[in-house]
Amino acid sequence: MWKHFGCLLIITSFYGVVLCHGEEESVLRQPNDKALLRFSADSTFKITLFADLHYGEAAWLDWGPEQDANSSRVISAVLDNETPDFVIYLGDVITANNLPIPNASMYWDQAISPTRSREIPWATLFGNHDDAPFEWPPEWFSACGIPQVSCPPANFSISGEECSFKGTPRVELMKMEMKKNRLSYSMSGPKELWPSVSNYILRVSSSKDLTSPVVFLYFLDSGGGSFPEVISKAQVDWFHHQSKAINPDESVPEVIFWHIPSKAYVKIAPTSLSGIRMPCIGSINDEPVAPQEAEWGIMDILLKRSSVKAVFVGHNHGLDWCCPYNNLWLCFARHSGYGGYGTWPRGARIIEMTEHPFVLKSWIRMEDGSVHSEFTLSS
Ligand SMILES: *[C@@H]1O[C@H](CO)[C@@H](O)[C@H](O)[C@H]1NC(C)=O
Ligand SMILES: *[C@@H]1O[C@H](CO)[C@@H](O)[C@H](O)[C@H]1NC(C)=O
Ligand SMILES: *[C@@H]1O[C@H](CO)[C@@H](O)[C@H](O)[C@H]1NC(C)=O
């Protein structure tokens, strides 16, 4: 069965083709030829979610780089407090619409750097700002003319004509990340789902038995930027097909990650007047949910799978709650970056899972080290 599984995962990634030889070893490896993710010896697996970091804003002004340094400080503080097994960058890693450089991979790399330097493996997915086209600030065309910006920044050997300020496509950002980083578990999903790119599945295995999956992590690209904010029908069909193939009896728990909340979040959101009350858990509820533009049924499919425990999204910087939605939890992460709108204190949502029995817990770790909103989602 797990041989079969090894081949099925190939469909999720065009990088994995060579693995489908039916050899025992190939079965035990991630499609991207990484060591298999597994629960640690104490039977836990802890994930830190960094949402909406927005690196690269106003790079030509003093406060832009200062903001990014602040975001790196948040990431470092959270990682040193939590020492997670895995990190997920939950979209809007950069603000491409603010980047007056031809190649945004440099900022993408800055965001990843504190995780990489601690040798923690990670995965990324795309938000609506990551490949947005550059938006020329109107004031650049003032009476004084277009101001001098540092283009290109250091380390790029670029001739003048390559300095055209345009967004870097998702595929290119992902390619650069995967090429350079041994610890990256990110993947460009199947080509037939493009322009949405960050569609892939990771398996986390038991600490005791590598062939035994304890949880599947599904990553979906909820669009935005260079195309509409949607999870397409093609992605829904892909999820349906993949989940049925790798987890046909729904015996393995499944956790889902994407960037922009679905409309179901609107339905269950605490009203602004009532604040966040049980059964919802969280600390800020300061703006309306900004959902995807259109939906083609992903929520119906998730609701039908008893194995799906929770969905985690970012996007709304002023929301950090989790609320139940039938048999699963819909959760916001926590705005982690100094970039992007809002001055709510920065933090990160933590997910901790335990095997035998499977328990899923979550809490929010703030930049200042404090912890709040801890609860058990599934046990
Ligand atoms: C960076 O963080 C410091 C300390 O929290 C804060 O005072 C400052 O305003 C921040 N700067 C920016 C540009 O966000
Ligand atoms: C983007 O920058 C990276 C270095 O960070 C470089 O390796 C890559 O070739 C660049 N891509 C393009 C399209 O310029
Ligand atoms: C430029 O490259 C040097 C050496 O590789 C590195 O230390 C530095 O951080 C880089 N600067 C930028 C802006 O990427």
Could you explain the architecture of this structure?
The chain is built from 8 helices and 15 strands. It is an alpha/beta fold. It has a single domain (2-18, 25-378), classed as Purple Acid Phosphatase, chain A, domain 2, CATH 3.60.21.10. Helix 3 (63-82) runs parallel beside helix 4. The longest helix has 20 residues, at 63-82. The radius of gyration is 20 Å and the shape is globular. The protein starts with a helix and ends with a strand. The chain binds 2-acetamido-2-deoxy-beta-D-glucopyranose (3 copies). One 2-acetamido-2-deoxy-beta-D-glucopyranose binds at residues 103, 105-106, 172, 176. The site of one 2-acetamido-2-deoxy-beta-D-glucopyranose (NAG) has 5 residues, from helix 3.
Write the layout of secondary structure elements.
Elements: H1 2-10, H2 24-27, E1 37-38, E2 44-50, H3 63-82, E3 86-89, H4 105-117, E4 122-124, H5 170-180, E5 200-205, E6 213-219, E7 230-231, H6 233-246, E8 254-257, H7 263-268, E9 294-295, H8 298-304, E10 308-313, E11 322-325, E12 328-332, E13 347-354, E14 359-366, E15 371-378
Parallel strand pairs: 1-5, 2-3, 3-4, 6-8, 7-9, 8-10, 10-12
Antiparallel strand pairs: 2-13, 5-6, 11-12, 13-14, 14-15
Helix pairs in contact: 3-4
The structure holds 2-acetamido-2-deoxy-beta-D-glucopyranose (3 copies).
The site of one 2-acetamido-2-deoxy-beta-D-glucopyranose has 4 residues, from loops.
Pfam families: Metallophos
Domain Calcineurin-like phosphoesterase: 45-317
Keywords: Signal
